[in-house]
Amino acid sequence: MQRLLPDLILCMESTLYYYGYTDRNPDKWHVAVHRDANKKRLHIDYPLISVHYFDTKYLNMGVATGSINGVDFRIYDRDRTICDVIRHINKLDREIVNKAIKAYLADSGKNISKLIEYAKQMRAYKKIQLWIGVWL
Question: 78-123: per-residue pLDDT in tens?
């Protein structure tokens, strides 16, 4: 997939699985692209993808590099992933959300200050405060 569409960024359930925040293997790859991306080129038969469109100011926020089987790809970091999950909480299974938050808070690689910074920039601070504050 990375070779077909190199500008994609893994996000949402795909990143939760990559970081070990969920044990559910996603049924499709969740990817982020620019809001103005050519939608026709994103209609591919395989692999199955779920496309999430972001504005320029949000798209490259929190991008990191990951690797699976020697193939490098762009992925959102842990903190951005949790921010996105909480921002889109109504679109996800509550069990996945709760497990992801618990796993994130137990992760030694987390950065709560970065999470709060992302939340403020993405106008999700109150939601983050509500959900993360419950677990702290």
Answer: 999 999 999 999 999 999 999 999 999 999 999 999 999 999 999 9
Residue (of 81, 76, 78) closest to 62 by Cα position = 76
Burial of residue 117 (number of CB atoms within 10 Å: 0-12, 13-18, 19+): middle
For the record, the structure tokens of 40 come out as 């026709």
pTM: 0.88
CA atoms lying within 13 Å on the CB side of residue 85: 32
Domain positions in the chain are: 9-135
Is there a contact between 83 and 101 (Cβ–Cβ < 8 Å)?
Answer: no
- CB-based burial, 101-113: b 16+ in 10 Å, e otherwise: bebbeeeeebeee
Residue type, 99: K
